[in-house]
């Protein structure tokens, strides 16, 4: 079996999938470089305060989160290429406007419109990935679809920092080139269309999805619960160095990516329930043990174990969704579900900070373990009533 045959997507769709991935990747790269590197480093020259830049990010991310249902509907009706080209063009106008006419209201307004425009890309990308997946490999296809976007976000940080610090004055041009390429790639993908539903959207299509709305919220809530406290916990409580933390997180991420192909076979072949319950149980144990203030060697082992559990959870969750979501109107429904996921991601850090203040440094990790165990009970309940046997 050749390398291409081992991939979870149909070979005839690989070129289009790569084009869609690069379009989304360039957009995500530009966004991370713009908000997290270019604007903070250029705030003095542009006359924009850091609080205003932070507010612009909040406006942008909320606009994207709440528009994903609409974005999924538009990508289903207009095609990925149209919405991607529009998102790239709006991003390009945002960068040019910020560089040429720096103004607080202009920044807030343009980033809001950019958030709405970009909202269609993720639902369109994930829907296409599920549609062209090889039958029986849907979980792995969706897991790798998620993992393949992450390096682009990191690349935005790296390239943005390089251009801003080593080639002053060129960061804005780098963003313009990247967004221009994203716009052109969007135009090149005009032929990528989702099948037009034979029937209109029906409320009955939402009924199977309603049972997983709490889980969609909880799993993104869990992923972001530690954002505000992880550095403080590792540096001030565990007394690890910066590089020790980076090594542990890097190895955990590497284990997650490398093992996703092998562990992702479990939900595709055995069904998603047991891998979901097992991975969540392991994550609960990892969080409980981290709360006991482990040594660095123990912490490293827990990060590796957590990476393997995450590599099992992601394809299992996505395989469960692919089985549950109807083929017709999938992009619109997926986009609506991503609104709930966005709310979970937005509230996770705040709750993590509250648990730290209320229960001390162990609080967020005890809370994370409790959420995992709650999800285990929820999935077992779905299995008991037949929803998990699909």
UniProtKB/TrEMBL annotation:
Keyword Membrane belongs to the record: yes
Record carries keyword Transmembrane helix: yes
InterPro entries: MFS, MFS_dom, MFS_trans_sf
Taxonomic lineage: Bacteria, Thermotogati, Deinococcota, Deinococci, Thermales
Primary gene name: ltaA_2
Domain of life: Bacteria
Name of protein: Putative glycolipid permease LtaA
Coiled coil (residue ranges): none
Sorted UniProt keywords: Membrane, Transmembrane, Transmembrane helix
GO molecular function, one term: transmembrane transporter activity
Residues annotated as domain Major facilitator superfamily (MFS) profile: 175-390
Transmembrane segments: 48-66, 78-99, 105-129, 141-164, 170-188, 209-231, 243-266, 273-291, 297-320, 332-359, 365-385
């Amino acid at each position: 079996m050749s390398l291409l045959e081992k991939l979870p997507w149909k070979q005839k769709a690989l070129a289009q999938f790569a084009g869609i991935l690069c379009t989304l990747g360039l957009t995500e790269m530009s966004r991370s470089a713009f908000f997290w590197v270019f604007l903070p480093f250029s705030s003095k020259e542009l006359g924009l305060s850091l609080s205003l830049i932070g507010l612009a990010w909040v406006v942008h991310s909320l606009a994207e989160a709440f528009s994903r249902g609409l974005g999924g509907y538009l990508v289903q009706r207009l095609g990925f290429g149209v919405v991607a080209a529009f998102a790239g063009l709006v991003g390009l106008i945002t960068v040019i406007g910020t560089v040429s006419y720096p103004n607080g209201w202009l920044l807030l307004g343009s980033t809001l419109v950019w958030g709405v425009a970009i909202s269609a890309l993720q639902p369109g990308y994930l829907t296409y990935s599920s549609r062209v997946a090889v039958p029986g490999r849907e979980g792995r296809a969706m897991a790798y679809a998620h993992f393949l976007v992450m390096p682009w976000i990191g690349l935005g940080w790296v390239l943005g920092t390089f251009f801003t610090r080593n080639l002053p004055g060129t960061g804005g041009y780098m963003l313009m080139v990247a967004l221009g390429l994203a716009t052109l790639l969007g135009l090149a993908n005009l032929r990528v269309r989702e099948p037009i539903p034979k029937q209109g959207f029906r409320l009955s299509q939402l009924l199977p999805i309603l049972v997983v709305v709490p889980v969609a919220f909880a799993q993104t809530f869990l992923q972001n619960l530690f954002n505000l406290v992880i550095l403080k916990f590792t540096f001030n409580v565990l007394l690890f160095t910066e590089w020790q933390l980076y090594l542990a997180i890097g190895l955990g991420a590497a284990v997650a990516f490398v093992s996703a192909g092998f562990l992702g076979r479990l939900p595709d072949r055995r069904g998603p329930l047991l891998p979901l319950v097992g991975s969540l149980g392991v994550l609960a144990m990892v969080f409980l043990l981290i709360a006991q203030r482990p040594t660095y060697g123990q912490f490293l082992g827990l990060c590796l174990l957590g990476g393997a559990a995450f590599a099992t959870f992601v394809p299992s969750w996505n395989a469960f969704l692919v089985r549950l979501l109807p083929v017709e109107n999938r992009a619109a429904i997926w986009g609506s579900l991503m609104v709930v996921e966005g709310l979970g991601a937005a509230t996770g850090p705040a709750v993590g900070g509250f648990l730290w203040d209320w229960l001390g440094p162990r609080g967020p990790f005890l809370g994370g373990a409790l959420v995992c165990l709650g999800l285990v009970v929820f999935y077992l309940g779905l299995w008991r009533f037949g929803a998990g046997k699909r």
